Amino acid sequence: MIFKNKTYDVLKWFSLVGFPAMITFFGVLGTTLEWGFTQPVLTIAIAFNTMIGTMLGISNIKYKSMVEYDDAGEEDYE
Fold first, then answer.
1. Number of CB atoms found within 10 A of residue 50's CB
2. The domain containing residue 47 runs over which residues?
3. How far is it, in rounded angstroms, from Cα 75 to Cα 8?
4. Of 62, 68, 73, whose CA–CA distance to 2 is shortest?
5. Residues 6 or more apart from 58 whose CB is under 8 A from it?
6. How far is it between the farthest Cα atoms of the chain?
7. Is the pLDDT of residue 75 over 60?
8. What is the pLDDT of residues 27-57, one digit of tens each?
9. How many domains does the chain have?
10. What is the rounded average pLDDT for all residues in the chain?
11. Is the per-residue pLDDT at 77 higher than 80?
12. Residues with Cβ < 8 Å from 31, sequence gap 6 or more?
């Protein structure tokens, strides 16, 4: 799966900045206020973030391989 540029940029920001910040904030609140199920929710959230990061990495690798293939396959007619 290859994402469009805008989709990739939004998901990348969310995966690298937004979601880790929210996970940390929820973890601190949950631990401080002794909320039940804080640890399982954090585990699931971290697994979800890892999945998004993996999908972005695969998309990036596929995109780069397509660009390299296009660059190698093009003939210069000048």
1. 11
2. 5-71
3. 29
4. 62
5. 1
6. 69
7. no
8. 999 999 999 999 999 999 999 999 999 999 9
9. 1
10. 88
11. no
12. 38
Read off the tokens for 26: 């929820």
The position carrying tokens 């000048």 is: 78
Q: Check residue 38 and give its pLDDT.
A: 97
The answer to whether the beta carbons of residues 67 and 2 sit under 8 Å apart is no
Amino acid at 40: P
pTM for the whole thing? 0.77
d(CA 7, CA 63) in angstroms, rounded, equals 14
Task: Name the H helices within the chain.
Answer: 5-13, 19-32, 38-73
- Domain assignment present for residue 33? The answer is yes
Percent of the chain with pLDDT over 90: 64
| Pair of tokens at residue 69 | 């293939």
Classify residue 33 by its DSSP letter.
Answer: T
Q: Considering the domain boundaries, does residue 44 fall inside one? A: yes
